[in-house]
Automatic annotation (TrEMBL):
Gene name of the encoded protein: mscL
Keywords from the named record: Cell inner membrane, Cell membrane, Ion channel, Ion transport, Membrane, Transmembrane, Transmembrane helix, Transport
Function summary: Channel that opens in response to stretch forces in the membrane lipid bilayer. May participate in the regulation of osmotic pressure changes within the cell.
Membrane topology reported for the UniProt record: Multi-pass membrane protein
Full protein name: Large-conductance mechanosensitive channel
Subunit structure: Homopentamer.
GO cellular component: plasma membrane
UniProt xrefs under SUPFAM superfamilies: Gated mechanosensitive channel (SSF81330)
Organism (species): Zestomonas carbonaria
Amino acid sequence: MSLLSEFKAFAVKGNVVDMAVGIIIGAAFGKIVSSFVGDVIMPPLGILIGGVDFSDLAITLKAAEGDIPAVVLSYGKFIQTVIDFTIVAFAIFIGIKALNKLKREEAAAPEEPPAPTKDQELLGEIRDLLKAQQGR
């Protein structure tokens, strides 16, 4: 098998396509969460803590000198990223919990026992005949 045909077989497998779709949807979901956190969650939270915007929180370690830019420790951006991560992780947790609940409900549904096969029916008849002969 040539290298090209092996690659084609690998690339068109369902798992690879599913993974690509998952990555694309994950990137779009990340943008939604970033907007939700930055535009919906952080403004009220900033008001609650006295109007502080997390992204502006920083400590200047060394002031700018001429052409050399200042050295700044932007811990507010880190706090923002941690909040983003926490919201994404919680959303994923809720989604997986819901999926697991659906799977448990499907598994809990009782299945009808399979109908006996012809062999099983014949063996049952033989058993019944033997019992009848022994009972005489």
